[in-house]
Write a structure and sequence with these properties.
Length: 262
């Protein structure tokens, strides 16, 4: 296990590969661990980092660190500690919110962001889920996903307050408005069967920047990277391989991921 000290507290992280840096940010349940397959795929060309956010996994658990602002600041502090400059972010759920918030403030640092299962509408998050019960919430969000032990096995390590605090803040943050102002190449990935984030076609809301694009997995739930790992990893590679500053709108879903020819 690798760890660094930030604000006199332990932050657990892991790293694979060499090359340009990419950081994986986990969601409201689980920890860095479920990113291992995606990290292994990315590590062929990138130096892939993943760490546990405040209140998760082996990272310190203190209520004062659980706000979205503090989780976003943790990303900044982690990058500084690791000496990371220009970076690609891949965030899921809570990690997707953190990635979007960070990219909106540090567009010159974030080369691109892939945000998965993000509640862009905020208030559209399912309200029948018990955010005080990490184990029960984990089972609901897994919803029959394959290869789930990396998520289920970490449920008991989560401080419920870390989930509740960030979920409560979502109702006061307009993520759609933040998305409309994004200048960073951003790819939104969502699963149709997600029990937490209702399926939403962002094109219906209009006025999204040209650098913002959505792809929906019709055969996945809250964890597209676990439900359809091969498809997800191909998409991730195609997105990462785009030249810096190029819009991801050319990416489309086919039997194989290909760039659209215009």
């Amino acid at each position: 296990m690798s760890a660094i000290i930030i604000e006199d507290k332990i932050v657990h992280y892991e790293v694979l590969g060499r090359g340009k840096p990419i950081i994986f940010l986990h969601g409201w349940v689980g920890s860095w661990r479920y990113w291992i397959p995606a990290m292994q795929s990315a590590s062929a060309s990138y130096r892939a980092y993943a760490f546990d956010l405040w209140g998760y996994g082996e990272t310190a658990k203190e209520n004062l660190n659980y706000s979205l602002e503090e989780q976003t600041e943790l990303l900044d502090q982690f990058m500084n500690a690791m000496g990371i400059g220009k970076v690609a972010l891949v965030g899921h759920g809570l990690g997707a919110v953190v990635a979007l918030l960070y990219a909106s403030k540090h567009a010159f640092v974030v080369d691109r962001a892939m945000v998965i299962s993000i509640p862009v509408l905020g208030k559209g998050v399912a309200d029948d889920l018990d955010f005080q019960d990490p184990v029960g919430l984990t089972e609901r969000l897994l919803n029959g996903s394959a290869s789930v032990e990396a998520v289920r096995g970490e449920a008991g390590k989560i401080d419920p307050a870390a989930i509740h605090t960030s979920m409560e803040e979502l109702s006061y943050i307009n993520l759609m408005e933040i998305a409309r102002q994004m200048t960073t190449a951003s790819l939104v990935v969502q699963g149709v069967r997600d029990p937490l984030v209702p399926n939403q076609d962002l094109d219906d809301f209009g006025n999204l920047p040209s650098m913002f694009h959505q792809i929906i997995f019709s055969d996945a739930g809250h964890f597209p990277m676990l439900d359809r790992p091969n498809k997800f990893n191909r998409l991730m590679k195609d997105f990462l391989d785009l030249p810096s500053g190029q819009s991801p709108t050319q990416l489309q879903l086919k039997d194989e991921w290909k760039r659209r020819v215009r």
